């Protein structure tokens, strides 16, 4: 009976401590969200991403055909006769609202399924860049002018000296052309801006009275970084997460256009690469324009969110 009472007393205490630790994060996120929703540009970007995410999740139910579907069936005579790629058709002789490619696959279907790859690469690269860059930036700024800071900054200097796209191409070529390796190749460079900007923010925060008060009270370095510094740099981290996601989408499309993509998965970049290989860039606009527009739209939506978050962080900076 006494053990049960002790457990009952311990559980509320643990929950209280957890709420106390998460409270600064909740307050920071709530404040940023309230200010963010006042920006029409940011809300527009969020709406676009939400719509594309909905399409990606329910792709099998939204797409007019499976990915394996081919216009006219698997009959090469139609391609030889100039019937493929076929412009948009609405039931005669088949239903393909955005036309087909040279193999008879529906462009709209590929566009819908390609949203999955674009979102996955963008969000994965953005999150991983933040998970690497933000902690390193906090540590570097907190231990400024020490061997820890010097070591991190020397790595940043070396990495900054390497050109982005050639480095990613080399890393992908060495490790193999897979979606995972493409993401890791992008993250290998994209975390640098996070680390540099977060470090500068931490250097500014370290001079604030509440940080000095925490140090005077005997709080550990980890506690200061976790409870007092991290909540204050989170909005800035979200800005670069959005920007890194947009950049990753553009880099993946560039790699795919160069032939460095996982062709086992349909993506907007591979659609552009295939039309270039097949030589229909000037004769099949229904095949060329949609994936290009979707790449631009999704990347722009992330930039809209990043711009709006930056406006929240620095109201006078974008005026």
Automatic annotation (TrEMBL):
PROSITE patterns: ABC_TM1. Pfam families: BPD_transp_1, OppC_N. Signal peptide: none annotated. Residues 115-306 form the ABC transmembrane type-1 domain. It is found in: Cell membrane. It is a multi-pass membrane protein. One of its GO terms (cellular component) is plasma membrane. The chain crosses the membrane at residues 41-63, 118-144, 164-188, 233-260, 280-305. InterPro entries: BP-dependent_transpt_permease, MetI-like, MetI-like_sf, OppC_N. The keyword Cell membrane applies. PANTHER family: D,D-DIPEPTIDE TRANSPORT SYSTEM PERMEASE PROTEIN DDPC-RELATED, OLIGOPEPTIDE TRANSPORT SYSTEM PERMEASE PROTEIN APPC. This is ABC transporter permease. It comes from Halolamina litorea.
